[in-house]
């Protein structure tokens, strides 16, 4: 890992700062629970020396009652530390998960398209869940068992410091094993999370494309991919289990060996009178109980390594810069006229492969511009620059004379309506889908938008009207109906700029005609960009731009472009409709 562990610890700690009061009381409860755990072995000394040997029954009564009170106190402190630390940990994880989700939402489309959605979701779910275990359970174990260890060590030194030094002469070996193996475990933990993320990515990719999988009968192929990745995840988990089991076993053998050695030496000291039988019993009891804190701490250290691996993955995503965001002091565009200017715009998804090469064009307010060209010509890329899904590498895009990079991004996008080729309807009713993103929408606004999009009569015919859930009881919308809902959703906020990206490409001729009528109504009075492969949808455009290899090669009205000999537009039109339509 490039990032040092202390940096990760401090960064995680920063998320707990707002809840420091509860964390402080949780820490006090942890210390209290640990201290109550330290005293019982010392009572055994008194049981042996004062009761069994000295036969003092009064001491026995006191010890019996005291033991009950000790465990009552321990139970109360344990409840407090568990509840408070879980509360703090869950709030930290809640904040971190929300922050991560918000950051992913604002990532540029180029980043999202370059990563599997399943792997990104794994950061929010699996990685955060692993980190949640570290923040809640592991921290508690380390504090409680750490304080317990220190307390028991103090009692050991008090009973017989020479015997304690002998006992602990062998512990550096255990510490060395823990240190070496924990470093290895962190790398293994990172690998485990990577493999698990790939499992999620493959599953999400296949299930979201189930129609394609069924169409090409590749179920066995996808199952094989999923099984192979699961096996790799299984191997990574088993490798981690091997390391963890070795760590736990080796440490325990070392400690039991030390206990046996101390028993031999301590027994000799009792015989010579240097120790009382009760002191030896208490000493051995503390050494025996000492195994538990060390075992729990070693397990906690291993879990911390996995948690830090998850933290690395989470923070690496949070550290990915947002290349598309509002400037520090943005301009808030209000009531745009809709003028759009491209000034020598260059853009590429991959370095050295330009998709747009020096595009210059001015679109006047209220003008309808159609953009046509072969696949890969850069049509969608050009219009994606208007809502700032991407920024040009060179050149500028201006709206009403303002560079898009100077504007407040949400304010800009709220004045742009987009109808994509494959409109996605979100979970909810038809009405909520139309009003999506427009919290001030009234029922009348929704109805007017639906009427303008030519979908109101169909919605009114449904039993629950605009409250009909999408897909309820098999009431699925056809392609044309989805497109018209998308048009209504795009225009309900009365945007000044409208983008229709291949909005009729997947529709049959009759449905296409209805959608085109809805599109024409929607475009009235708005600056509109229409991308289409079917040239029948662009005849009425005020102007047509022909793109070829990222360059505007032709520009004019439908009639003007048809008259050009050997023109690209005329050629495309002839291919679609034949010369008789020219």
Structure in a nutshell:
This protein is α/β, with parallel strands linked by helices and 582 residues long. It has helices at residues 5-16, 20-38, 40-53, 57-105, 109-113, 117-159, 161-168, 171-208, 210-215, 219-272, 277-318, 379-384, 409-413, 430-434, 443-452, 456-461, 479-491, 509-523, 558-562, 568-577; strands at 340-350, 353-363, 368-373, 394-399, 402-403, 416-419, 497-501, 527-531, 543-548, 551-556.
State the share of residues found in helices, binned by percent.
Answer: 55-70%
- Percent of residues in β-strands: 5-15%
Largest sheet: 6 strands, mixed
From the spread of the alpha carbons, the general shape counts as elongated
How would you classify the helix and strand content by structural class?
A: alpha/beta
Write out the strand line-up for the largest beta sheet, numbering strands in chain order: 6-7-8-3-9-10
Rg computed from alpha carbons, rounded to a whole number of angstroms? 35 Å
Low-confidence stretches: none
State the end-to-end CA separation. Answer: 65 Å
Arithmetic mean pLDDT: 80
């Amino acid at each position: 890992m490039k990032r040092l562990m202390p940096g990760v610890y401090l960064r995680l700690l920063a998320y707990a700062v707002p809840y420091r009061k509860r964390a402080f009381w949780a820490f006090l409860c942890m210390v209290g629970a640990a201290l109550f755990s330290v005293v019982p072995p010392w009572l055994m000394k008194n049981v042996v020396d004062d009761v069994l040997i000295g036969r003092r029954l009064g001491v026995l009564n006191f010890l019996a009652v005291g033991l009950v009170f000790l465990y009552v106190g321990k139970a109360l402190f344990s409840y407090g530390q568990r509840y408070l630390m879980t509360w703090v940990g869950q709030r930290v994880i809640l904040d971190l998960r929300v922050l991560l989700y918000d950051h992913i939402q604002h990532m540029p489309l180029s980043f999202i398209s370059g990563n599997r959605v399943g792997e990104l979701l794994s950061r929010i779910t699996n990685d955060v869940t692993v980190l949640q275990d570290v923040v809640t359970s592991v921290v508690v174990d380390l504090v409680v068992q750490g304080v317990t260890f220190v307390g028991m060590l103090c009692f050991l030194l008090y009973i017989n410091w020479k015997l304690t030094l002998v006992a602990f002469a062998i512990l550096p070996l255990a510490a060395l094993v823990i240190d070496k193996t924990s470093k290895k475990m962190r790398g293994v933990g990172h690998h485990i999370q990577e493999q698990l993320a790939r499992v999620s990515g493959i599953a999400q990719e296949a299930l979201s494309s189930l129609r394609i999988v069924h169409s090409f009968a590749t179920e066995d192929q996808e199952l094989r991919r999923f099984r192979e990745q699961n096996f790799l995840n299984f191997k990574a988990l088993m490798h981690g289990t091997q390391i963890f089991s070795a760590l736990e076993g080796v440490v325990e053998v070392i400690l039991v060996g030390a206990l046996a050695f101390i028993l031999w030496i301590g027994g000799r000291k009792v015989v010579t009178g240097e120790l009382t039988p009760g002191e030896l019993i208490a000493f051995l009891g503390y050494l025996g109980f000492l195994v538990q804190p060390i075992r729990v701490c070693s397990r906690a250290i291993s879990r911390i390594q996995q948690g830090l691996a998850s933290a690395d993955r989470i923070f690496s995503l949070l550290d990915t810069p947002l290349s598309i965001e509002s400037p520090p002091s943005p301009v808030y565009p209000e009531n745009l006229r809709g003028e759009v200017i491209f000034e020598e715009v260059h853009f590429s998804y991959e370095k050295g492969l330009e998709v747009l090469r020096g595009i210059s064009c001015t679109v006047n307010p209220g003008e309808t511009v159609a953009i046509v060209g072969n696949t890969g010509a850069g049509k969608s890329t050009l219009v994606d620059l208007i809502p700032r899904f991407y920024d040009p590498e060179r050149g500028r895009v201006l709206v009403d004379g303002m560079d898009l990079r100077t504007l407040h991004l949400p304010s800009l996008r709220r004045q742009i309506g987009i109808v994509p080729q494959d409109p996605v309807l979100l979970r909810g009713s038809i009405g909520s889908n139309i009003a999506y993103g427009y919290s001030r929408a009234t029922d009348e606004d929704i109805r007017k938008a639906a009427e303008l999009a030519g979908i109101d009569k169909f919605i009114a015919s449904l039993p629950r009207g605009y409250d009909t859930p999408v897909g309820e009881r098999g009431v699925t919308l056809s392609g044309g109906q989805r497109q018209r809902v998308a048009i209504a959703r795009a225009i309900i906020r009365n945007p000044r700029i409208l983008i229709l990206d291949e909005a009729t490409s997947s529709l049959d001729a009759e449905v296409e005609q209805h959608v085109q009528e809805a599109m024409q109504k929607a475009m009235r009075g708005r600056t509109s960009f229409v991308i289409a492969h079917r040239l029948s949808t662009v005849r009425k455009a005020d102007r047509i731009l022909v793109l070829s290899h990222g360059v505007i090669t032709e520009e004019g009205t439908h009639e003007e472009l048809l008259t050009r000999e050997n023109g690209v537009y005329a050629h495309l039109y002839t291919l679609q409709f034949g010369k008789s339509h020219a």
